[in-house]
Amino acid sequence: MRQAVSVTVLGHFAAAFAALCMPPFYAHILQQNFSGQSLLMAGWYFTLPTLAAAIANPLWGKLADRIGIRASLIRAHWGLCLSFILTGLARTPWEFAAGLCLQGLLGGTFAASNAFLASFLQGKKLASLLSVMQGSARTALFAGPAIIGLFGAQENLLRIFLYLALLPGLAGVLLYFLPEPASTVPANKPESAASGNAVAGISAATLYRFQAVFTIGTVLTYPYFVIDLAERLHLSAGWAGALFGLPHVLFLLLAWPMNRHIQLQNAQTALARCSALTCAGLLMQGLAQGAGLLAAGRILMGIGMTGAYLAINALAAGTTRHSSAGRHFGNLEGANKWGAVFAGILASTLASTFNYTAPVWLACLLLAGLTIFIESKRL
């Protein structure tokens, strides 16, 4: 089982590294390879894989419960490998867009990896590993663009997709040759008890809604963060980039110690309070007139985001049914992706209608509403 867990986590890191390191360079790729393509379209290219994944993940999750979780995870890695190859071979903007769509349609390694882990782990162990998986993705989010950026001047970045295809391809091969891990979920245990719904206190459908709202509330602030700070606080792109990454660094630093204090029994309370902390951090950022208050807001937001994601992981583990783990994590990741898509649309609309800070205020309202809703249901 340790081998299976190690290969699953490392395989997801490889896939996440490959998928997350390239989006910041889409504008550069368009300029290098498709000179007639407007750089303003880079934002649309950024959305394509997310939208495709939002549609595909729940469908792949349902199929996983039929064909087997391990087979589905191998499929996700090899699907991502194929899509990277096709993207790297693109000769026109339309082929590039098609390759990005295929990354979302054929991938889904995060949901498939989580479902695979849920097939032989449960409860606190599963929740802890789900947090490790999120840490893996955030590490890839930082390391990937930094490493790829070193090749920007020497290499055609579009061709780097061909090299990146090796990572999920190799992960799929390793998983193929690993033996099927033995399930530790008691076979004679009733499905409702095994799912932990009584402990978690909420249904899976409610958790999906919580995930979507929290994602919208945080991702709303991403698209215009750098330009907002440049216009409102006159900060350089370098400082804005560092402040943007601060909450994600805090996740890597705080997830392990905080995870010990968030259990299934207190996960809803933790989600409500950490959503409130995230809201307070965003409020400070919206009101900030200098870098000091803004940095404090980012720190508070990082603490809140970390606790909220850990609580969602605990609730995800508590609402998992062994027989439908693929569908469960496919739907959960689908909710996350749809939240990101809607956040991008809302942010663009608000920024063009009002100003670059407007998405922050809507994010505050959504997270405050989520806190009030959870607390009202607990009373």
TrEMBL record:
Keywords assigned by UniProt, alphabetized: Cell membrane, Membrane, Signal, Transmembrane, Transmembrane helix, Transport
Signal peptide range in chain numbering: 1-18
Compartments, record wording: Cell membrane
Lineage top rank: taxon: Bacteria
Transmembrane segments: 42-60, 96-117, 129-151, 157-178, 199-225, 237-258, 294-317, 338-354, 360-376
All copies of domain Major facilitator superfamily (MFS) profile, residue ranges: 4-379
Coiled coil feature spans: none
Membrane topology of the entry: Multi-pass membrane protein
Chief place of localization: membrane
InterPro entries in the cross-refs: MFS, MFS_dom, MFS_trans_sf
Pfam families (UniProt xref): MFS_1
Name of the protein described by the UniProt record: MFS transporter
Organism: Undibacterium squillarum
Lineage: Bacteria, Pseudomonadati, Pseudomonadota, Betaproteobacteria, Burkholderiales
Encoding gene (name): yceE
